[in-house]
Amino acid sequence: MFIGTTQMGWSVGGGEYIKMTLASAFPISVAFYFALLTGVYVMAKSVHWMEQTYGADTSFDRCMVLTTYTSTPLFIAGFSGLWPVLWFVVFAGLLAMAYTIYLLYNGVETVMDIPEEQAFMFGTSILTVGLVVLVGMIVTSAALWGMGMMPVFTQ
Questions:
Q1: Number of structural domains, the chain?
Q2: Tens-digit pLDDT profile for residues 100-141
């Protein structure tokens, strides 16, 4: 998205393209990258913490495998930011989210080695924690914008 927002620009509703300056886009991109890594780690720790409730007894490594396995479509959808047109990015994000949820519900039983009866509830719990982590990332972004890490736009 760094390349798309600084070189191509955004157009909302077919209006003129607005680009971010390199000086503001770079720190935001670096912070976003570390936020993604932190989010995956927090999700893996949460899965590891919840696993015994649902009849699993696996290592943290397997929890990390499940987390990275299910979040891969979302990371790949980030390439849609090379062409930052709102409808395209939203469509790619929704498609990636649907496939991520599909992978989660189909992979939790196999990767975590839990009974089929528990897999649905465990997957739903993981999805809920993922939404909480997403809200935490949004709140952190808003706080960083308030502390001066706000995007600067050019035309």
A1: 1
A2: 999 999 999 999 988 888 899 999 999 999 999 999 999 998
